[in-house]
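Researcher: Structure for this, please.
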Amino acid sequence: MTSHWRLSTGFIVRLLMIVLVFAALTPNTPAYASDQTESSAIQPTTVMVPPLSDANATVPVGQAPTTREITVEWMETQSGQDRFYPDFIVVNQGDTVDLTFINNDTVAHDLVIGAPYNIVVNASVPGLYDDVTGQRITTPALNNSPGVKVTGTPGNVSASYSFVAKYPGIFEYVCTYHIQVGMIGYLVVLPAASNTSGTTQPIASNQTVTQSPNTTQVSVDAGSGLNVNLPGYTPVDITVVIGVNNTVMWTNNDNMPHTVTATDGSFDSGNLNPGKSYVHTFAQAGSYPYICVYHHWMHGTVTVLSGTGSPQQQSQGYGNVTVVLTGNQIYGMLAFAVVVLVALMIIFSRTRRNSEQTSSA
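Model: Predicted structure, token format:
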């Protein structure tokens, strides 16, 4: 009887310890608080619009579309900083903009407008210096938008481009070589009088994001806007599964704006300021390369799996598949493990008791 009592007491103590550990790992503890709460909302960026100059004030809202010839020049301030002149342009929705960007500097400059326009006018030619890399440019710019014409020699370069101002709103234009020193301007597209549906409104530059267990995180790396040797996005290539972790959040951890722009146009963050995040949920399987339109060396790829078929089929040819477990799923797995452990302990206890009874007999 004494040995039976010691066995029963040990069994009860071990069972109590398992229950205590199991209770400590439930999703209601702080260790799983991220599964129960939402992250704080990310506030959209507010652009402060300077007053209209007298020249720009002559553009009335609702005027019939026309062709506007606009010239923007590189300018050096008294403090030696690079700037656009003018740095504030106003046109009407539907206008055709014949843009000329003049670079009279000894270094490269460009004029880049993000989503939904996605315009790159790079007024650089061989012989100019690249202030990002510190190297002399030896080849013509390869990242210009289709139709951009670049002429001239170092110290006297002109780049021209024509586009239709389809989308009303306020859009930044930047020099990607000198955005860190404030070479930024604004294009204001006044809405047409007939535009009441809102269907042509620009894409929001920053979205309010709710983080959840099925969100895959990608970082826009610090220093990536200046260092051409950095990949820019970490991780560069990710694989997600529809219904598991197919929502992707990009967070700008750099000190300058970037974009997350799909090469096929399926998603675009627009201007993504430092500290802000952009989220996109993928609903169709496929491969989605993307870039930063401000920094041509930054690129990444999202591979989206359908989530159907056997695990063996999914693992062939797709790389690593990340599976995210929620707190409730982990809770269920632990519960099953405890049930199996208790059953094994009961079987062991009965076997040992029967063995002792046989020995004493």
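Researcher: Any notable elements?
Model: The first helix runs from residue 2 to 24. Residues 1-7, 27-58, 195-212, 309-324 have pLDDT under 50 and may be disordered.
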